[in-house]
Amino acid sequence: MKAISFKTVGCRLNQAETAQMAASFRSAGWKIVPFGDPCDACVIHTCAVTVNAERDCLRLARSVKRMNRNTTVILAGCAAEVEGEQLLKKCGADMIAGQRAKFHLPRLLQSPPGSRNSLQELPLFNSTRALIRVQDGCDFCCSYCIVPAARGRPVSRPFKEIVDEARALAGQGFKEVILTGANLGCYSDGTLKITSLLERLEKIPGISRIRLSSIEISTVEREIINYMAGSGKLCRSIHIPLQSGDNNILRLMGRHYTAEQYRNLIDYAVARIPLLGLGTDIITGFPGETEEAFNNTKQLIIDFPFSNLHVFTYSRRPGTKAASMPGQVNRGEGKQRSKELIEIGREKKKAFASHFLGRKVSVLVETVKNNTGHGWTEEYIEACVSQPALTSNEIIDFIPSSCLDGILR
């Protein structure tokens, strides 16, 4: 039996697709082994969002080749789609597989005779939460983003196919599913939108929690918030990318909203859902970002109860409009601004988690060691629970008495 390993770089959509690829190989007669173990082939599922992400992919490919020159190294996904054969020259990998080819890799690698067609196999996860890819592609064309080139225009999976997959995952024992896509709010199957899908998934026995990856403002964010407020299974946690709190920078980024519209949305969300887990993405050092523009972003972050900040320092991504924009900000200045926001984010994370001291919270236990379970609340707060006879993949209620660095205990 041939062995294969996988390494995913990037977003939850990549993670969901890696699970699909792993399932196709397992069905084709391959053994799935942990990344770093000896294997016949290794798939690096690449990310092209930033130059640094792409470099990480190349570094991983080189490390696999150093460990075993006979391992077939495949670069799959976004960077492979954007860069093509140039990637092989940069790292000495053996094969590239773009967005379509990556789902046919067992056949392309000449799977053992008698293997089954595995394209409809259930994704293979090694975690307690299952990712369901409901949509791919984006046509928002933000000036810093390579995703439209890497993944193409928005395409949604059929409604029934998603429901069937969720039902099968529930049958395998998954209690929480995470819906993901390149632009999740754009999901559409005829008249059926993302809220229609949520409504249907809630009816599946065995699924106790539904979680969403990020939702772009100017899609269905208010509909999602309204649905979440009355839902029994949709986790009270939402990630709405901001990127900048300055209108001029938002315009240069090609975003579809103003800082005032973003403020109004967050006001609406926290009014509808008190103690809402609220995450966002921020880019610092974007071309043209002055000190005043940065301060506008910082003030917006300070004004709202964010619990999870993803802060990135802008780096030029070849193939994007922003790469040739005037007013490129010194990289060191961008990093300093990121550091400042990251520190604010840490304090906000701790402040948000502390609101739950003495309150009953629900935790999905992911790992257990020495009678201590580690997992996440539905608000996406990290938690450690000490109880006898804990097992992974169970949802338990507990009342935290302490909060250390934003972790409930």
**Molecular shape:** globular
Strand content: 15-25%
Q: Any idea how many domains?
A: 3
CATH topology category name of the largest domain? pyruvate-formate lyase- activating enzyme
Which residues sit in consecutive blocks of at least 5 with pLDDT less than 50? Answer: 112-120
Largest sheet: 5 strands, parallel
- What class would the helix/strand composition place it in? alpha/beta
Within CATH, the superfamily of the largest domain carries the name tm_1862 like domain
Separation of termini? 44 Å
Care to count the β-strands? 20
- What proportion of the residues is helical, as a percent range? 25-40%
Strand order of the main beta sheet, please?
Answer: 2-1-3-4-5
The Rg value, from CA coordinates, equals 22 Å
Number of helices: 13
Multimeric state: single chain
Q: Give the name of the CATH architecture of the largest domain.
A: Alpha-Beta Horseshoe
Q: Round the mean pLDDT to the nearest integer and report it.
A: 94
The first-level CATH class of the largest domain is given as: Alpha Beta
